Amino acid sequence: MKKALMALMLSSLFAASAAYAEDNSASLQISGTVMNGNSDCYIYVESSVSLSGQTDQLIPQGTNATAPKNLPISIGNVGGYCPAPEKLSIQLHAVADDADGTVIANNDVSENGAKGVGIGVFDKNKTPLNINGGVIPLNGVISEVNLQLVKLNGQTPTEGTVHGTLTLDLVRL
């Protein structure tokens, strides 16, 4: 009888504990930088670029650039140029367009934002590069990328403002 009473009391205690337990969630945002103190290499590039175009003269998405804005890219470190490893390249990352997903989307979705327009990224030969997978090989410490407004495939461009962000990641293989 005492054992049965004890078992009943313990099971009641566990049930009461489970009934009063609550999940309290917490959010944590983490950010930071990891660096190698001996060989910090940096990408130097203009912080902003201004592009313009007329809706009836925009090149179609996926075609070679005709009049791009050249953006020189330099690689270096605080003490001079970064010693180039055997293989060094830059990888492109951006929010992709909603047509083919190959150019930078227009982030201005307000009523003043251009529709059917993206920002094409091109190599030094004016050949299109795919964002989120496009790689620019470096020949020495200076390279380039070219930018031009493009008409998105299957969409009709309308005038307005265009904003986009491109992230360049230095990749060593």
Automatic annotation (TrEMBL):
Signal peptide: 1-21
Taxonomy, superkingdom: Bacteria
Keywords: Fimbrium, Signal
Subcellular location: Fimbrium
GO cellular component terms listed in the entry, alphabetical order: pilus
BP term (GO), one: cell adhesion involved in single-species biofilm formation
Domain Fimbrial-type adhesion, residue spans: 30-168
UniProt xrefs under InterPro entries: Adhesion_dom_fimbrial, Adhesion_dom_fimbrial_sf, Adhesion_dom_sf, Bact_Fimbrial_Adh_Pro
Database matches in Pfam families: Fimbrial (PF00419)
Protein family according to the UniProt entry: Belongs to the fimbrial protein family.
Record-given protein name: Fimbrial-type adhesion domain-containing protein
Biological source species: Franconibacter pulveris
